[in-house]
Amino acid sequence: MKEENQYGKEREMNEDQIDFRALLFKYIIHWPWFVGAVLLCFVGAWFYLHWATPIYNISATVLIKDEKKGGGAGLSSELEDMGLSGLMTSSKNIDNELEVLRSKTLVKEVVNQLGLYISYTDEDEFPAKGLYKTSPVQVNLTPQEAEKLNSPMVVEITLQPKGSMDVNVTVDEKGYQKHFEKLPAIFPTDEGTLTFFLQPADSITLRDGTKISQKEQRERRIIATINKPMHVARAYCKNLSVEPTSKTTSVAVISLKNSSLQRGQDFIDQLLEMYNRNTNNDKNEIAQKTAEFIDERIGIISKELGSTEANLESFKRDAGITDLTSEAQIALAGNAEYEKKSVENRTQISLVNDLRKYLRGNEYEVLPSNVGLQDAALIGAIERYNEMLMERKRLLRTSTESNPTIVNLDTSIRAMKANVQATLEGTLQGLMITKESLDREASRYSRRISNAPGQERAYVSIARQQEIKAGLYLMLLQKREENAIALAATANNAKIIDEAIADDIPISPKRSMIYLIALILGVGIPVGIIYLIELTKFKIEGRADVEKLTSVPVVGDIPLTDEKNDKNGSIAVFENKNNLMSETFRNIRTNLQFMLDNDQKVILVTSTVSGEGKSFVSSNLAISLSLLGKKVVIVGLDIRKPGLNKVFQLSNKERGITQYLSNPETDLMELVQSSDVNKNLFILPGGTVPPNPTELLARNGLDRAIETLKKNFDYVILDTAPIGMVTDTLLIGRVADLSVYVCRADYTHKAEYTLINELSFEKKLPNLCTVINGVDLKKRKYGYYYGYGKYGKHYGYGKRYGYGYGYGQDTKR
């Protein structure tokens, strides 16, 4: 008992270390699994990398010109010196421009421009690969028609070597088929009109770089998929990144993730082109409106000037006028000056009235600003009003009219419009007052001229009108040229610093990451499989399992062996033989001797169920003890179905301990039989099977029998019935000094150790220990128990000692 307690303490102290080693060893012994899984995963990773479509990161660096940060200061100052500052747009915010660059509206324009809503796949390749600008046939469907599609339109094209083509169109569960003898061709459908064109080249470049003539083409199968442009734009927006390089600069990096280098570069180039085009249109809108207004006025003045010059020519021809008197010239000069001022006044009145009409008839439209107005306050009000309208247009690119910012801006625009209207009214009133004053002065000079000859007065009147119209016409021509300069001076808003270029290495799939994942899977899959296998193992396999289930000491592990034994295969220990089984039972024998005190001789051997090798262990243990020169008797107390008769091939099966238990007057020693195995080994078989085995074992006769045997023998081995089936062994336990509980690897269920622990805790069997029988050393996890590999590879006792006990079907291994 002392040794058992010490053994238990040592086991608890080393429990963590033993568990760790066992856990590690449990996986290491399956190293071929890991090697095979890792190799398989690496091969799979190689194939994946070989066939997967690489994704590249294409990026360009651009400078966004922002007048707030000095991007357009030089141009603004130059135009300001020319008096054209009102034609330029207001400063822009960099963040707003970045939002415009990544907006779905702009991306959709790029998708439509490049035809990216139509994708091509070469089905002759394995795996099928996408085509960009290399498809032998181009399919066209207008963006407007494509936007109306409810689902993608799949166009299967089979191009024949001679140029004919078979087309199969599938969309919305509807199908269209048609054959074309030559291309180009038109194919009307309910969803839109498809047009087909051959690649505009003498030869077509394949994916591997080879070129084939269109006349020599083999039959090819191409699939064109037409999606909604907005759906494609959303997909591109997810892969598009527009980020500033820092907060202190207006430089941005535009990046796109795409499987085609050329397509990615084309997309970024077209994105910047469309952005610059749109921003230039916005900046030129005021100048364009002004140009339209000036052209309209030039047309009117040109007609009036032509009419005046014709009248002057006709008057001179009819009247024969060649010169005027000096006095009349002086009067006429003064009158002409006031008449000129009066004309300029009427021109200003006309301009103001035109602007009033334009303002009332156009909602949220910019006003012409540089048309010859002389009122600085009015010009300033118009410029501020135009700036607010341009800001509203920029915000509407990325927002809706319900946005609070735009709602507030609309309120400000309406207020500013009212201010412009009020300024126009005030300016008009001032001009009308000036007109009355000029008319009075002109009338005074007219009265002075009235004394001049009528012909001269008529001539001067016509000449004055011609001079005034000519001056106004020249002024409008000058303004038109200034406006044209402003249009020509508009620069792109985004300046390309670094052109679109792809990284040398694809961002996906990443080779190192794929191989790392393959390595993790190669290790993880076997670990998972082994773990699941361990979870489904309900039977013990060896010492490691037993030590996890119970604190009962393990005194030995008996391996399977294919060594030749006696005729029935149950005797494995022989005199003068130094084999594995002999060494195993010597080890068990030694451990049991350490657990027994000097006066303790009785060893009980039992198991949970039949077939675990109880009789095999008890018989060979008895033989091993007898080889020490000790007198040993093995008693067959499994009286329900005695097994020693078969083990030792006893002929007189009726004689046995049951005769003594039934009749205590019988001489017990006469029932003991000698053994042919060893002269020191004796057998007391079970005898005839009694009708009341439990009652016989409960009587005092068993105690007297054991005392008698202890006096005549050095060791008494009790081969008892399986304790999990009957209670006989519990009754026998009172006469034993030590109990050996036999378990069998790959046979005994782990749940049965609940019974063993209960027996140990409640001390129903004295000095309990356990022996593991039938350990398969082919399972390398148990190979470290033994150092006797020279005795053989496989051990097969389990195939020979699995006798039944009458409690169920015989078990064989």
Entry keywords:
single chain; 813 residues; alpha/beta; 4 domains; eight-stranded mixed sheet; six-stranded antiparallel sheet; 16% strand; disordered N terminus
Would you mind describing this structure in some detail?
Keywords: ATP-binding, Cell inner membrane, Cell membrane, Kinase, Membrane, Nucleotide-binding, Transferase, Transmembrane, Transmembrane helix, Tyrosine-protein kinase. Belongs to the CpsD/CapB family. This is non-specific protein-tyrosine kinase. With about 800 residues, this protein is an alpha/beta fold. The chain has four domains: about 80 residues, no CATH class; about 220 residues, no CATH class; about 200 residues, no CATH class; about 230 residues, Rossmann fold, CATH 3.40.50. The protein is built from 25 helices and 23 strands. The strands form five sheets. An eight-stranded mixed beta sheet has the order 16-23-22-17-21-18-20-19, with helices on both faces. Strands 3-2-12-5-6-7 form a six-stranded antiparallel beta sheet, with no helix packed on it. Helix 3 packs antiparallel against helix 15 and helix 10 runs antiparallel to helix 14. It starts with a helix and ends in a 38-residue tail after the last strand. The N terminus and C terminus are likely disordered.
Label the CATH architecture of the largest domain.
3-Layer(aba) Sandwich
Strand segment tally? 23
Rough shape? rod-shaped
What profile does the largest beta sheet have? 8 strands, mixed
Within CATH, the superfamily of the largest domain carries the name P-loop containing nucleotide triphosphate hydrolases
Helix content: 40-55%
Number of domains: 4
Structural class: alpha/beta
CATH class of the largest domain: Alpha Beta
CATH topology (fold) name of the largest domain: Rossmann fold
Work out the helix count: 25
Show unreliable segments: 1-11, 13-18, 68-92, 782-813
